[in-house]
Write a structure and sequence with these properties.
Number of helices: 1
Shape: globular
Oligomer: single chain
Largest sheet: 5 strands, mixed
Number of strands: 5
Mean pLDDT: 94
Radius of gyration: 11 Å
Strand order of the largest sheet: 1-3-2-4-5
Structural class: alpha+beta
Helix content: 10-25%
Low-confidence stretches: none
Order of helices and strands: EEEHEE
């Protein structure tokens, strides 16, 4: 399993440059995990990942002490 943070220059939304305590982890079927910080609308973000990436099996949202999963 490899886990890596997606750099800001690869992010599409301008909101990704605005601080937020929400982190999203996109879990791929090959075992890799992409970590995105500064996410403002995690449900919409998860839907966009699912629509763009067939390999994404689930998204884990972490905000402060809370954590939950979103699946396809």
């Amino acid at each position: 399993m490899s886990k890596f943070k997606v750099k800001k220059e690869f992010r599409v939304s301008d909101l990704s440059h605005t601080p937020s305590e929400t982190i999203v982890e996109a879990h791929m079927n090959n075992g890799s995990i992409r970590v995105y910080d500064n996410v403002h609308y995690p449900e919409k973000f998860a839907n966009a990942i699912f629509n763009r990436e067939d390999r994404c099996t689930k998204v884990v949202v972490k905000t402060g002490d809370n954590e939950y999963e979103i699946t396809k």
